[in-house]
Amino acid sequence: MESVEPVTRTSSNLLTSAPTLDVESPTEMSTSENLPPRDYKFWLVFLGMGFATMITGLELSAVSTALPVIVDELKGSTTFVWVGSAYTLSATAFIPLSGGLAQIFGRKMVILAALLLTAIGSALCGAATSMNFLIAGRTVQGIGGGAITSITAIIISDLVPLRERGIFNGLIGIAWSVSSGAGPLIGGGLAQGGQWRWLFYLNIPICGVSALLMVLFLRVRTPPGTVSEKIRKVDWVGNALVIASTASCVIALTWSGIQHPWNSVPVLVPLILGLLGLIVFIAYEAKIAKHPLVPFIILTKLTSLSGYVQTFVMPVVMLGIIYYMPVYFQACKDLSPIGAGVDQLAVALVLAPVGIISGVSVNVTHKYRPQLWVSWVFVILGTGLLITLGADTLRGHAIGYLVICAIGLGILVTTTYFPVLAPLPVSQHALALSFFMFLRNFAQVWGVTIGGAVLQNELRKRMPAAFQAQFPEGTAVAYATIPLIPHLKDPLKSEVRAAFADSLKVVWEVMVGIAGLGLISCVGMKGLPLHTDVDKRWALENGKSDTKEGIQMNDS
């Protein structure tokens, strides 16, 4: 039977990251009974993290609905996919670094830097005068967004025991779900009104409010040591490997099926190099790195592995739905961007409360396996029903199928943490969460790319040849076509709409298969006890001296 990893640690432990403790003693761990009270400072910090999370959810989903308008204005039909991929690439590649920096420099410095980068990137995006300018801004924005994703999860793990974390994950899930679900509506409304730049400018005041709350109320302990000592503890080689490998994979996936065929050298070479680089990264971290970015104890825990597989699969399916259901509504149902956003809002309205209910159920029952089994059944059922959508299917059917998908995804958003963290000692939760967020973001790249590649290739097969001839080679047919559909006349209009509907059916078939992997991975998942303590090294300060509390941070 799989057990929770013993908490004794030595200086030779390869899984340790600076700063470390030689032994996890009672003075270094806080149980739920002796944690500081959750006063107004705790809740204001939590509110600040909610605002930060809203930004990441909004940036993930809002751009997809506004993209046809942005592409048309900035003349970027050959590079549009980079608007999404640049964000997810930089967010994913820099998540491990942000987690490591949080261990070395402290949580407060990292989250403030993340908010600053997000605000700067948003300003650049709003001021963009070309597609390359916009892509550069999205890259900066993504670095900040990825760090926000990682550090908010780490701070919650510092403040709330795993057994109680379901409710708090659910609350953060509400912020993410509402913003990601409302994103298509906001993006569509602004795009339709010719104000798509405000889709990015809106992030700046939100960043400011979140940063202010963190400056005033986030009083967590900071690791000792000079700046030069802390810089020496950063795993620069490991970070370079994961950043370069991730970038190589994302470049290949972005080019595939649009600029270059899947079996072409410009796609295969960077993809193979990127995957090999990730293998080298894992080997380096496991055998050589002094301060590894990833706690590789997870490789010995089947439950953690199951949780990580589910963590990877869920965003692939979710991003496929978030990005390509608006395409269905606009191409097949003749909806405007704002109309597509309204129909897509069903995801947020269901996903958020379901996430809370799922978190409460874990808190009450102290179990997570039943919820995860049920979640995958709903996801497979919902995406399976999306396959039945045709050009003439009633919109109500499409919205109903989205609701079924959202029930399953809502459970997964707040529950996949538990099998990942339950087998591990709380001292390793921060790095485990950083890797968790890395996988989740990396999967988002695959979700957008797989769906886009399938849609692009299927449209090339099904679209009337005479109609396709107007688009230059390398043009993204889907987004170039959508603005033209309302002005087409039958029978061409019906043929184009049918081509979109039939192509999207293949996208949903692929997503059903991917969701099936998530369900299968549940087989290896055990039901383990949930921790009732937190790592006291990172708890909110409550006015007592750290020395008196017996806390020592050593770089053993």
TrEMBL record:
Domain Major facilitator superfamily (MFS) profile: 45-556
Key word Membrane present: yes
Membrane topology according to the record: Multi-pass membrane protein
Domain of life: Eukaryota
Keyword Membrane among UniProt keywords: yes
First and last residue of the signal peptide: none
Listed GO MF terms: transmembrane transporter activity
TM annotation in the entry: 42-67, 79-97, 109-136, 142-160, 167-186, 198-218, 239-258, 264-284, 305-325, 345-365, 372-391, 397-418, 430-455, 506-528
Any one cellular-component term (Gene Ontology): plasma membrane
Pfam (any one): MFS_1
Keywords tagged on the record: Membrane, Transmembrane, Transmembrane helix
Subcellular location per the Swiss-Prot or TrEMBL entry: Membrane
Listed name of the protein: Putative transporter C3H1.06c
Organism: Grifola frondosa
